[in-house]
Amino acid sequence: MTRILRRRAGEAMRQTGASAESVARNLAGISRLAAVLSRTTRSIRMGDPPYVDTITMRDVAEFFLAGRERAEGAEAAAAVRQEHRQGLLLWLGFLDADGEPLTGAPTRTYVAGALDPELEEHFGAHPVVIFS
Question: What gap in Å lies between CA 54 and CA 115, rounded to an integer?
């Protein structure tokens, strides 16, 4: 995973002209989100999140729009996906100015059979989408 992140960091710097500091900050945020997903995975063992055949971009947008009033201090929102035995594990949550999951803000976790084409396009080959 670290090797992949380093390669992507180099690609991002070349494509966007971003500074190494900016890319490092973004990678650190992704690592923190991966830790959240790891904790979420462990919590699944206590009781599975809801299963949805297909999660849509509309579902994601509606969650973020409905939750933003209770996400005081949120600078962005994130969707994190990971393979799961039933399809995909999808975590939705809000981030603070440092890219950390916002304490006390709404989060939602799904197990989904698939993502709709629009949401799949946003993810591309990446495990995280940041909405700002």
Answer: 5
Chain segment 49-59, per-residue pLDDT in tens:
778 889 999 99
Alpha-carbon span 54 to 110, nearest angstrom? 10
Predicted TM-score (pTM) of this structure: 0.66
Measured CA to CA, the distance from residue 77 to residue 24 in angstroms comes to: 19
User: 108-115 and 51-55: which strand pairing?
Assistant: parallel
Q: What is the pLDDT of residue 5?
A: 54
pLDDT of 1 reads: 46
Query: What are all long-range contacts of 65-69, with beta carbons under 8 Å and residues at least 24 apart?
Result: 66/106, 67/94, 67/105, 67/106, 68/94
